[in-house]
């Protein structure tokens, strides 16, 4: 099970106009302390806050989102024999392959991986089919930045790519070394953050390709899922039809 991190309280600068308060780190602050959180706590708090507004969210998984990465996406899409999937899945594969290569992933490992080991989705809104990821600060690394740099301007995602890139620049000095003492399948020793960045892009790009609404990402760099929901409450209520 993935380790979830939370930033211990530290001095924070004011949010920039158009940015959610608490999302943009104060680069002048000292190096923060990091403490472990129970996996899922941030997402559970987010879902609980949403439930108070009548939005029911639950974790989920899908056969096209598995350990095989974009190889598995292509396999599942072909098995569906749905002509409407051909163009969007092909476009997603054309982005995911170079992202995987930039992150120094071993594609041969994807072919040898398990098709029944599904990657989790933080939260799913079943009535609309919307997938939501609530990202702690560990998701904002130079590796994620490198992946986002390959996204085209018209990429189908329901988050501000520019803001996420800015967060990556702010946090990479603290996050690039996370899990450096561990091996990550297909990414080698110390490759955990590169693997995380690849899986984030896989979720981003595979979701609309497989017929779902664009994936929603909410930054929760302070580890407060309820506050992250409140910052985006009006937009989420409109998006999810509640």
How is this structure best described in words?
Helix 3 (83-102) runs antiparallel to helix 7 (192-209) and helix 5 packs parallel to helix 7. This protein has one domain. It has 9 helices and 8 strands. 43% of the residues lie in helices and 12% in strands. It is α+β, with helices and mostly antiparallel strands and 242 residues long. The strands form 3 sheets. Strands 3-4-5-8 form a 4-stranded mixed sheet, sandwiched between helices. It has a two-stranded antiparallel sheet with strand order 1-2. The longest helix has 20 residues, at 83-102. The two termini are 32 Å apart.
- Walk across the major sheet and give the strand order: 3-4-5-8
In sequence order, what are the helices and strands, one letter per element? EEHEHHHEEHHEEHEHH
What's the mean pLDDT score? 87
Unreliable residue stretches: 1-36
Structural class: alpha+beta
Overall number of domains = 1
Question: Quick one: how many beta strands?
Answer: 8
| Rg, Cα atoms, Å | 17 Å
Count of helical regions:
9
Shape annotation: globular
- In what range is the share of β-strand residues? 5-15%
Distance between the termini: 32 Å
State the major sheet: 4 strands, mixed
Query: What share of the residues lie within helices?
Result: 40-55%
